[in-house]
Every structure is written in C-alpha cells, then in structure tokens.
Amino acid sequence: MSDNQVAMVILLQHSNNLSTGLSSLSDPALGRAGHTAAAVVLGLILVLGFLGNFLVLMVFSRFPGLVTPVNVLLINISASDMLVCILGTPLSFAASVGGRWLTGSYGCRWYGFSNAFFVSLVSLSLLSLERYSAVLGRTHSNSDSSQYRRAWLAVAASWLYSLVWTLPPLLGWSSYGPEGPGTICSVQWHKRSTAARSYIGCLFVFCLLLPLLLMLFCYGRILLAVRAVARQVSRINQSSAERREGRVLLMVVSMVTGYLLCWMPYGVVAMLASFGKPGVVSPAASLIPSLLAKTSTVLNPVIYVLLNKQFSRCLLNTIRCGSEAPPTQAQHTLASRRGVWRPPPTEEQNTVHVMFTSRDQQLQQPALVLVAQYAT
C-alpha cells in the first residue's frame, strides 16, 4: 500500500470518528472509575428528577384549586424538567455506563438540542417577574381570566424564547457535539471560531445573565417590600411579621442560590473554554459543571414547590391516598364544587394594606395590597 493510500485511510477513519462521535472522543484520563461515578450521579438525577416533577404534576392535577396564575409557571417548569429527564438524561446515563457516546452524531445533536432548551431557566425568571407583579402591582382590577391569560402567554413566551436560542446550532451558528469526556453532548463551546464565540457570548448574556439580573431585581424588591410591611405591623403582631419576613428571606436566598449553583458554573466554564487560553478547561473538569446544571431538574421541585406549605399538605395527602383535603391551622370550612377542593387562604396569603400618597391628588389611598406570600 502506497503512502498516499495509507494517508487516505487514516483521513477517512478520522472523519468517520468525528461524524459518529464515539469512543475516540472519550477522555482516557477520566477512567472507568470516573465514568462509573458520573453514571451514578446521572442515575440519581434521572430518578429523583423524574419522581419529583411527576409528584408535582400529579398534585396539581389532583387539586385544581392550586393552579393559580403564578403556579401555571411552576407547572411549566416541572413539565419541561420532566421532559429533560425522559428525553435527555437516559442518553448521557447510558453513555457514562458504556464509557462512550452510544447514539451517534444524530443522537448527539438531539441530546444537545433537548438539553439546551432553556424553558425552565427562562420560566424561573418569568416566575420572579410574575411574583413581583402580583405582590407589588399597583392595581388589582384584572379579572381572573386575564391573569390566567397572561400566565399562559408567559408559558408560550418561555418556549418561543428557548426555541430562538436553541435552533441556531442546528442551522449553522455554532453546533452541537460531544462535550467533556465524550459521554455528554452540548453546544461545542471549545471551538474558537468567530461564529462559535459569538453564539456562546450571546447565550451567556441572554439566557443566563439577563434572567439572573431579572430574578435579583424582582426578588430583591419583594424582600424590601415585605420588610417595610413587617416594620409597620410589628406593633400589632411582631412575631408573626418576623416569621413571615424570615420565610420570604429563605425563599429568596434558596431561589437565587439554586440558580447560581446549577447554572453559573456551567456558564463560566463555557466562557473560559471559548475565550480563555486553549486547554484551560480539561474534558474531565468540564463534566462537573454539566452535572450541576442537570441537578436543576431535582432542585426546582424542592425550592419552588415543596417549600410551599399549602402544596406540602396536598402532597402528603396525595401520598397517603386521601380523598379529602388536609385540614389547615385555621380549620377553614372547605368548599367543594363537583368534588374539587379549593384551598383556603393560608397565613402567608393574608393581605396588608399600605397607604401611599398620590402625586396628583396628594391624598392617601390604598394603592397597594402587599401579599407576603412564601413560595406561592
């Protein structure tokens, strides 16, 4: 065989390995123990994420009275997270068990596309905006139908916005391919072309940084407002006001911390790999931020739903297979329509009227009804 023929065979083999994305892209430094550890973590994420989000959706289905306009976004988050657990995580779990990517280039692109679909990420920021509007809105004249319409529009906007940013790699602006040790696929942020770098930069700003800033602004304003109300009502019921402020503070810290823990390491590593020195992020090290990002499917049901007292009571009642709604502290009378329970107001849903001065009339009027509500 001549030298030209040998070179041609090597070139064809290399091209075939790139197109299939199989064992040649696996990181030998990770080792069998590393792949096993990643498989265990992914298996836990798969099981816990699926069960947690399934329970959330089951409780909302069992108790339709919980489906408020704000909770419509929580349902959207749980539904999108469960889809990720079903359509994406099993592929990376199987790849970690086998030590290499198993479903070829088309499966790799599908996995990258489905896992990069930032529906839950965008919904988290829209949820903060919806809560900000509900707590600090100056008017409450909107009908229930208009509030539900706005919530469903926010759900549609989250899917459309996510589609706008996940389709470009399929159309030529950057691409989806093997990531890290070759057992996970994502946007190929290790490429250093102008198109790849511009896409990574836009993704970091519009799908990570802006949602984070929106959450910080909305939850920060909510926390300040609750503190102001707590100071005003402290003479009447100081202990209750302090407990309520503490719960809201816990909610804000949990939500922002969960967001930063799951998504910020991944974004920082992607930016370093794309704009930093070549080789600054090893394939094995890049696996950790990817796993942290996937834990959001487990943390979201806990932080955004299960910390809600009302929802927790309904969840326990569902697990016990009870047919009646759980009793509340105030022992409210539960009104039923066609066997559907409507949850009574809880302590966190009590309203506090705050008086503001109108700029035009310089008159005091109840312009704001502040709902110091914990994770509703």
From TrEMBL:
It is a multi-pass membrane protein. Keywords: Chromophore, G-protein coupled receptor, Membrane, Photoreceptor protein, Receptor, Retinal protein, Sensory transduction, Transducer, Transmembrane, Transmembrane helix. Pfam families: 7tm_1. Residues 52-304 form the G-protein coupled receptors family 1 profile domain. One of its GO terms (cellular component) is membrane. The keyword Transmembrane applies. GO terms for biological process: phototransduction. One of its GO terms (molecular function) is G protein-coupled receptor activity. The chain crosses the membrane at residues 37-60, 72-98, 110-129, 150-171, 198-226, 247-266, 286-307. It is found in: Membrane. InterPro entries: GPCR_opsins, GPCR_Rhodpsn, GPCR_Rhodpsn_7TM, Retinal_BS. Its main location: membrane. The keyword Transmembrane helix applies. Belongs to the G-protein coupled receptor 1 family. This is G-protein coupled receptors family 1 profile domain-containing protein. It comes from Gasterosteus aculeatus aculeatus (three-spined stickleback). The lineage of its organism: Eukaryota, Metazoa, Chordata, Craniata, Vertebrata.
